[in-house]
Amino acid sequence: xxxxxxxxxxxxxxxxxxxxxxxxxxxxxxxxxxxxxxxxxxxxxxxxxxxxxxxxxxxxxxxxxxxxxxxxxxxxxxxxxxxxxxxxxxxxxxxxxxxxxxxxxxxxxxxxxxxxxxxxxxxxxxxxxxxxxxxxxxxxxxxxxxxxxxxxxxxxxxxxxxxxxxxxxxxxxxxxxxxxxxxxxxxxxxxxxxxxxxxxxxxxxxxxxxxxxxxxxxxxxxxxxxxxxxxxxxxxxxxxxxxxxxxxxxxxxxxxxxxxxxxxxxxxxxxxxxxxxxxxxxxxxxxxxxxxxxxxxxxxxxxxxxxxxxxxxxxxxxxxxxxxxxxxxxxxxxxxxxxx
Length: 340
Ligand SMILES: NC(=O)c1ccc[n+]([C@@H]2O[C@H](COP(=O)([O-])OP(=O)(O)OC[C@H]3O[C@@H](n4cnc5c(N)ncnc54)[C@H](O)[C@@H]3O)[C@@H](O)[C@H]2O)c1
What we know:
The chain is of the alpha/beta class. Helix content is 39%, strand content 17%. It has a six-stranded parallel β-sheet with strand order 3-2-1-4-5-6, with helices on both faces. The protein has a three-stranded antiparallel β-sheet with strand order 7-10-11. It has a three-stranded antiparallel β-sheet with strand order 12-13-14. Helix 1 (37-49) crosses helix 9 (256-270), helix 3 (116-133) runs parallel beside helix 4 and helix 4 (146-157) crosses helix 10. Residues 33-39, 59-61, 64, 101-106, 115, 119, 122, 125-126, 142-144, 146, 167, 171, 199, 253-255, 258 line the site of nicotinamide-adenine-dinucleotide.
């Protein structure tokens, strides 16, 4: 076969996996808009999980989405039977969840907030089209700055806030737990500690409720003959907060851990698990923070956000959260949303 780039000559068209137009009620569909490093890694983990019966991939670069769909489709014999195809935003119709991971990522040295102008412009294109095609679904935003873009999505989609979620600090919380686990010599799944606030430079480690098996960290350290090393804990937080910078310096992007976090959110929703995860959602009247998306431990189920949990924060943590809220509010103000 000549490789002249024409899809019609390829033996296996991704579109062959697409359901018939007008087909009756379809099985669980997850759409991924933006099939770059994050979107395609998430789609791969979703395929292996077997959670979705249908995965549709959408990208401004249609050939990229087609290539990813073909590659993923060829993994189906090793996974659960799943229909995968490259589609358009119209294929988000009926999706239980649309994950949006379209847009630019951080370049070395760039903050997440620096990305706001270019990615907000992309969202103003994508979000009304997704919500128009799928007014009953959930939108899960991964693109950075994730809190600002999740808020923008909420405002311009017309969807209720419960059905617009940002991945928020699910990734930072995972990084924090992984690094604390290494320090204390236990399984990260046995460490209960949250990063709250912005997914970014103002994020807040919630030390006041961090524990292992219900034991505050200082008690756990004493009981295990370790001594409580506050300076080391501060380094662990800084390594958590700055992880993206360190990874991007080395490999140009981050995608495995965020993809795993997105999968965990999707699982909590599709299986109606009422799982508590640190994700970004609409926060009102929370330690003086109002009308902004940021992360706190949040109960997620089939309808999206079931409720956000009011943590008993220390004064320092509460003021850190307010700093996050103010930064996000002032970034949102640059978007001129009241003119939308
Ligand atoms: N939330 C998190 O924890 C987290 C973690 C890592 C990365 N990210 C963010 O995820 C985003 C994507 O990162 P990446 O590494 O996958 O980037 P990437 O450059 O590999 O992929 C971005 C994709 O978006 C597509 N795209 C651009 N405009 C589009 C449009 N209008 N419609 C559809 N597709 C469009 C591009 O063609 C590209 O394929 C970035 O903003 C990055 O900062 C978030």
